Amino acid sequence: MSAIVNEFFNAARTGDITFLQENISKIEDLNVRDSRGYTPLIIATYNNQIEAAALLLEAGADVNAADYGGNTSLMGVSFKGYPEIATLLIGYGADLNLQHGNGGTALMFAAMFGRNDMIKLLLDFGADINIRENRGMTAADLAAQQGNAAGVEMLEAAGIEK
């Protein structure tokens, strides 16, 4: 990876908007990947850098790009609990129901990690509550497994199939 791309990744991580603005036109592919498959957008969102994420999305970064494990920015912010960034991503067309390598979705991450504000947000935007991951578990099953009773209640109230 070239020096400018490395610096660009660091700027996305730290939210250095000035550097990103000055160098975005020098980056051949905004969806360039690091050794783990992270794109600058994934790095920015995972590090709660909403301004950097907005700048990258505005410049054409792929909102549904996934790392090598199949995890998207929306999945990452769902387990970290960043509703403002999730709303931004959804506004740019993030697929609420993409599944990573083990079949998990953003809603499942929110349910497993007790991010009930994220569960509500994802449900409000229409996330599919009946998707099953590779072991056959739904978001409600995963919430129950983690002892997230409030999450289970929210998902059941949304009409999850039992």
TrEMBL record:
Pfam families: Ank, Ank_2
Gene3D superfamilies xref list: Ankyrin repeat-containing domain
ANK repeats (start-end): 36-68, 69-101, 102-134
Record carries keyword Repeat: yes
Keywords: ANK repeat, Repeat
SUPFAM superfamilies found in the cross-reference section: Ankyrin repeat (SSF48403)
InterPro entries (UniProt xref): Ankyrin_rpt, Ankyrin_rpt-contain_sf
Keyword Ribonucleoprotein in record: no
PROSITE patterns assigned to the protein according to its UniProt record, in alphabetical order: ANK_REP_REGION, ANK_REPEAT
PANTHER family recorded: ANKYRIN REPEAT DOMAIN-CONTAINING PROTEIN 39, ANKYRIN REPEAT DOMAIN-CONTAINING PROTEIN 39-RELATED
Protein name: Ankyrin
The organism of origin for this protein: Chitinophaga pinensis (strain ATCC 43595 / DSM 2588 / LMG 13176 / NBRC 15968 / NCIMB 11800 / UQM 2034)
